[in-house]
Amino acid sequence: MKIALLGEFPSQPVSNFAQSIMRHCKYETEMYHRFANLSQIDADIIYYMNILDLLLHKEAWGQLPSSNKRYKICGSVLSYRIVQDKNIQKKLREMENFIEAVGFVNSELLSLIDFDKKKYLTRIAPDETRFKQSINVSTEGKLKLGYVGTFREDKRFNSILEPLIKKYEQIVEFKVVGKAGNIVPFSDMVLFYNTIDALLMASKYEGAPVPPLEAALCGRMSIVTECPIMKDIFNSESAILVGVSDNIPSTIAAFEDAIIELYEHRNDTVVKGQKAKEDVKEKANWKNIIEEYNRIFKECGNEEE
Question: Is the pTM of this model over 0.70?
Answer without folding.
Answer: yes
